[in-house]
Amino acid sequence: MWRPLAALSCFTVWCIMGNNDKYIKADLERSLKPSGAYLDSLSDFADLLGTIRQAEDAANQLLDETKPSPRSPALQDKSAASDKSPTGDAAKNKSVSDSTAPGAPAAQAEEEPVKLPSIEELLAQLDALVGLDNIKQNVKSLINYMKIRKLREENSLPNPPLSLHMVFMGNPGTGKTTVARILSELYRAIGVLSKGQLVEVDRSGLVAGFVGQTAIKTSDVVKSALGGILFIDEAYALAPDVGSGNDFGRESIETLLKLMEDHRDDLVVIVAGYSGPMERFVTSNPGLESRFNRFFMFEDYNSDQLYEIFNSMCVKSEYVLTEDAVEYAHEHFRMLYEFRDENFGNARHVRNFFENIVSVHSDRVSALSDHTRDDLMTALREDLEKAAIM
Q1: Is residue 84 included in any domain, yes or no?
Q2: What is the per-residue pLDDT across 174-224, written as a single tens digit (0 to 9) for each?
Q3: Is 91:147 a contact under the CB 8 Å cutoff?
Q4: Which residue did the predictor score with more confidence, 19 or 169?
Q5: Cα–Cα distance between 256 and 206 in angstroms, integer?
Q6: Angle at Cα 213 formed by Cα 212 and Cα 217, nearest 5°?
Q7: Residues 290 and 204 both lie in one domain
Q8: Are residues 284 and 308 part of one domain?
Q9: What is each CA distance from 385 to 22, 87, 279, 330, in whole angstroms?
Q10: What's the number of domains the chain is made of?
Q11: Under 8 Å between Cβ of 259 and 214
Q12: Sign of dihedral through CA atoms 214, 216, 221, 223?
């Protein structure tokens, strides 16, 4: 059926496709004899050419759609506006005004850098603590020593080896954690530590319950404390008595000693706890004894100091004690100090006592049918008496 097509030359086919549709039939008639089978072939060929023409039209339409179209008026206006945008100082002024306009995103405004406390401000915080006179003097001497070491180093003078790791010994509530926090920031302020953060943990934060996990847990804690102070409360719990069997606390100590040596230039470790157990803890391991050679003894607060701490809490929260309430408070703290035992909580007891007073006072005042501002502020002797037995 398609043999007559072979008689057409490539040139003829090109000419046929190039002509307009109305001339296609005439061209075919000139090229082929109109007889029987030839006419059938002509009809089939015409259908083929129609299909080709449709495909060509579809291709042209696709090309037209993918061509970049002229910019719309809206785009042209936007481009023109951008061409007229301010430059230089005008642009800076516009940016500032935009960022401060009502409803502008907060992210556009520049964040002010956090102001870190100076050495003088930190020493003022230390001096403001109640009691702790020997601790304050030791801290100040240590800071002076570190400042001189830095100056000698800057002047190419040698410094003897120094361990900054410390042992804080004393009963709970004597300000050990507070002093450690101030000390960490002081070390940052004079350039001994790079960050000055305080990371506080106990045995549970260092020891895991499975073989091989304690070293990982201890390493993670030390990593978080790099640049600051790692404060380990009740550190003697890491070294139980001999004969207690396998204990992962020893693994934590060995890991800690290695990391203290690896990061001795940017890590300070403070171990804290009761006096007797802490002495046994330090002497239980030669590595601990060689690294912890500075001991700070935190004495118990006396009765006057306990009242001073209590009064500062009342003033801060705007509670006023009646005269007989003040008399009762003095007597309460005197008895507390004289009959203290190994469980004496120092400032912790004061805080608990104050919170109990607030609770009792709230119950009493809320039962009043009408109350004044003075009622909301005044603590009575009966409030303190009930709080003491809670």
Answers
A1: no
A2: 999 999 999 999 999 998 899 999 999 999 999 987 877 899 999 999 999
A3: no
A4: 169
A5: 9
A6: 135
A7: yes
A8: no
A9: 117, 74, 39, 12
A10: 3
A11: no
A12: positive
Would you tell me how many other CB atoms lie within 10 Å of the CB of residue 44? 14
Vertex 282, ends 201 and 182: CA angle to 5°? 45
The token pair that represents 176 in the structure block: 């050990």
Q: How far is CA 82 from CA 86, 87, 97, 192, 371, in A?
A: 9, 11, 18, 53, 66
Q: Which of 23, 47, 62 represents a domain boundary (last residue)? A: 62
Average pLDDT for 107-123: 76
pLDDT for 221 equals 95
- Asked if residue 279 is part of any domain, the answer here is yes
What CA dihedral angle connects 72, 77, 81 and 83, to 10 degrees? Answer: 50
Do residues 140 and 210 lie in contact, with contact meaning Cβ atoms separated by under 8 Å?
no
Residues 259-285 as b or e (16 or more Cβ within 10 Å = b): bbeebeeebbbbbbbeeeebeebbebb
pLDDT of residue 293: 86
Look over the chain and give the mean of its residue pLDDT values, rounded to a whole number.
80
Q: What's the whole-model pTM score?
A: 0.67
Instruction: Find the domain containing 336 and state its range.
Output: 303-388
Q: Is 291 helix (H, G, I), strand (E, B) or coil?
A: helix
**Do residue 273 and residue 249 come from a single domain?**
yes
User: Does residue 74 form part of some domain?
Assistant: no
User: Measured between alpha carbons, how far is residue 145 from residues 141, 183, 186, 236, 343 in Å?
Assistant: 6, 14, 13, 29, 36
Q: What is the DSSP letter of 235?
A: G
pLDDT at 55 over 70: no
350 pLDDT more than 90: yes
Res. 380: pLDDT tops 70:
yes
* Span 77-101, average pLDDT: 45
CA–chain centroid gap for 112, Å, is 18
1's tokens: 């059926």
